Amino acid sequence: MPETGGPGISVRLDSVTKVYSISGEELPALRGITLTIGQSAVMALAGSSGSGKSTLLHLAGLLDRPTQGSVFYDDRRVDQLSSSERATLRNRSVGFVFQNFQLIPRTTALENVEMPLLYQRVSARERRDRARAILASVGMGDRERHYSSQLSGGQQQRVAIARALVTNPGLLLADEPTGNLDSRSAGAILSLLLERQEGSLMTLVIVTHDPAVAQRAGTVVRVRDGLLEES
Amino acid sequence: MFLAALGIRALKRNPYRSILTSLGIVIGVFSVVVLVSIALGAKELILQSIQNLGPNLLVVIPGSVTDSGAQVGGGTDTTLTVADAQAIRDECPDVWNASGALRTAAQVQSRHSNWSTVILGAEPSYLPVRDWHLAKGGFFGEGEEQSAARVSVLGRLVAQRLFGLENPIGHFITINHSPFRVIGILSSKGQSPMGMNQDDMVVIPLSTLQSQIMGVTYVGVILAAATHPNRVDAARREIEGLLRLRHHIPPDGRPDFEIQALSDIAKTANRMTLILTVLLALIASISLFVGGIGILNIMLVSVRERTREIGIRMAIGARPMDILLQFLTESAALSFFGSVTGGLLGILSILGIRQFLGWPAAIPWTGLALTISGATILGILFGLYPAYRASRLSPMEALRYE
Lengths: 231, 402
Hints:
The complex is a heterodimer.
Chain A: E1 11-22, E2 25-37, E3 42-46, H1 53-60, E4 68-73, E5 76-77, H2 83-93, E6 94-97, H3 109-118, H4 124-137, H5 153-165, E7 171-175, H6 183-198, E8 203-208, H7 211-216, E9 219-224, E10 227-229
Parallel strand pairs in A: 3-8, 3-9, 6-7, 7-8
Antiparallel strand pairs in A: 1-2, 1-4, 4-5, 9-10
Helix pairs in contact in A: 3-4, 3-5, 4-5, 5-6
Chain B: H1 2-13, H2 15-52, E1 57-62, E2 64-65, E3 71-72, H3 82-91, E4 95-109, E5 114-122, H4 126-130, E6 134-137, H5 142-146, E7 151-154, H6 156-163, E8 172-175, E9 178-186, E10 201-205, H7 206-214, E11 221-226, H8 232-246, E12 257-261, H9 262-305, H10 307-315, H11 320-357, H12 365-391, H13 395-400
C-alpha cells in the first residue's frame, strides 16, 4: 500500500462565529468556538443535526469564511486569504469526503480522482498513474472506467476517498462519510479512513452523529447549538 | 491548455445540447457568408457587363434643356450629327476613336424566316471603339459608308434566327423590304448593363440607315474611346469644349448634350452593390447576434445546472480563474466550431450557387475569416457573464445546491 498523507497539519479555530443571513433573517450557526486539532490527530465532531458541526468542518476546510474569529493552519492565519489562495491551499493540503460523495456526474471514477491533480497542473501521464494507484489501493482498481451512476454508495465513497487522498493532503475532513451507507459499507468506509490515517501523518476530522463512529476516533468533541459542549 | 481540454470534455459530455447551442452561430455565419457572396456576385456581374461595353468608353447623348433648367427626354433630341463625331475623332487629342450611331427597330427577313430586331446604323469605327470583333466575314468601310451601301453585319442571335446553321455571308436579307447583303457576323457580346441583348441586332452603315430607312440626318449617340483609362476625364473635357464650340453654346450656358463615362456608371454600380452588401451583411448579422444570445442562454442554464459540479471542483482546489476559464473555453469552443461549420456550409452553398445557378458568387475569404473570428469573439463575450457568475459562486453554497 502506498504511503499517503503529507506532513500532518494542526488546525486552530480561534473564537469563530458564523452567522448565515437568509432573506434578512440572521441565523447563527456557530456562536464562538475555540478549538485546536493537533497534528496527526484523529478527531470526531459529534452532535445532533443542526448543531453546527458541519459548519465548523467547512470553516476548518476553508470552504467558507468565519463571520468573526480566525483560522490557523500550523500557526499561519488562513481565513483571510483570497478565494484563489484558499483554493490553492485546499488543493494542496486538504482532502474532503462528503456524506453524499459529491462525485462529478457523467465522469469516470478515474477522471474524478485525477481532477485535483489537474488543478495542480500535473502531467497527464503522472496524473493517470497516481490516480490508478490510489484507486487500486482503496479496492476500486477494477472500476476505473465506471461512471458514478454505475457504482454503489460504498463504491462511490471509496472513489471519493481516493480523490481526497490523491494529493497527499495533510488534513482530511470527512463530513458524515457513512451517513448515506448501510451499516456494513459504513463500517468498511470508516475502517478505510482510519487505516489511511494510521499509515500516514495526516490529521483526520470526522463529523458524525453516529456514536459507533465517534467511539473509534481518538478524541470526541461535541457541538451543541453552535457551541462546544464541555465533556 | 488543460483548461481548454476541460471545457471541450464538458461539451462532449452533452453533445446534443452542444450541437443545438452552436446551431444559432452556424446559421448566423452561414447566412452572412452566403449573402455577402451573392452581393459580391451581383457586383461582379455588373462590372463584367460594363467592361463588356468597351474600355475607356465615353457616351455622348443629345439632351434638351428647358428654360427652367429641367432636362427632359435625355437622349431624344436631334442635335448631334455625324459631323460632330468626325470632329471629335479629328480634333480631340485624348480621343483615340469615335463613332456616331443611331438605332431603330425593324422587321428583318431572310428567305426562310423573319425576325423583329434592332437596326443599328454605325460608322466603320464602331467596332474598334466598342472593342468588338467579328466572328465571320468583314465589316463595312469608308466606301460603303460614303455610298450608303446596302450591306449588313448580323448579331449572333439574328444570324441564328434567320439562317439557322447555314452560312449567311453573301446571302441577302430584307429590311423594310429593301435587300441588304450580309457581309459579316459579330462575335457574341451578351447583355449590356441596361439589360439589352447585344447579340440581337443588325449593324448597317450609318448613312444608309439615315437616308434610306429613317430619313433623318442626326445621330442618336456618339461613342468615343479615350486613349487610356486615365485619359477618360481629359477626353471628356475636350469633347465638351469642342461640342460647345460647334453648337455655339456660351461657357455659362447649358449644353444641349450630355457626356457619360462608363467609369461613372461603374462607380454608381459599385456604390449600389456596396450598399447592398452592407445591408445584407447587417441583416445576416442579426441572426449571428441571436445565435450569440442562444449561447448566453445555454451557458447560464449550464452554470445553474452544474452548480454542484462547480462546488465540487472548487472544494478540490479549482480557483475562481480556473472555473471562469473552463466556462469561457466552452462558449468559445461552441462558437468557434459553430462558425467554422457555418463557414464550411457557406462555402459549399456558394460553390453550389456558382455551379447550378451560374451566378458569379465569389467566396469572400476575408469576409469569411472576419466573420468566423467575429462570431468566436461574440461567443466569448456572451460566455463571459455566465462564466463570471460561475466563478463567483461560494464553494459552500454550490456544494449544497440541489
